[in-house]
Amino acid sequence: MQPIPEKIDSKFRFVLLAAQRAEQLMRGGRSQLEDPARPEKPTHLAMEEVLQERLTWDYGPRPTPDPELLREAAATGDDEASTEIAAEEPAADGDAPAPEAAADGDA
After folding, report:
1. How large a percentage of the chain has pLDDT more than 90?
2. Residue 100's Cα: distance from chain center in Å?
3. Is the pLDDT of residue 20 over 80?
4. pTM tops 0.85
5. Which long-range CB contacts under 8 A does 20-26 form with residues at least 24 apart?
């Protein structure tokens, strides 16, 4: 396997991106490759698109904690749990933009 692009932080993320893109290709999305050498399986095309950095993606917004979990943690006096849950709250400056799996916008 070729080394994954630096923007992708792990093999796991590479697989997630390629799998999501392969699903888009199977549903009729057009390949971002300029000239695929031959008809290939959607999974191979998707992996090549990720390796060639043809797709745009982002981590997406941070998850918001469940207010009910915060109340339960406060009611039980579980300071550690409430601190962990509160630390997961999004920053006041807003969330990151939603992830884009492919440049062609197919979903």
Report:
1. 27
2. 8
3. yes
4. no
5. 20/101, 20/102, 21/46, 21/49, 21/50, 21/55, 21/101, 21/102, 22/46, 24/101, 24/102, 24/104, 24/106, 24/107
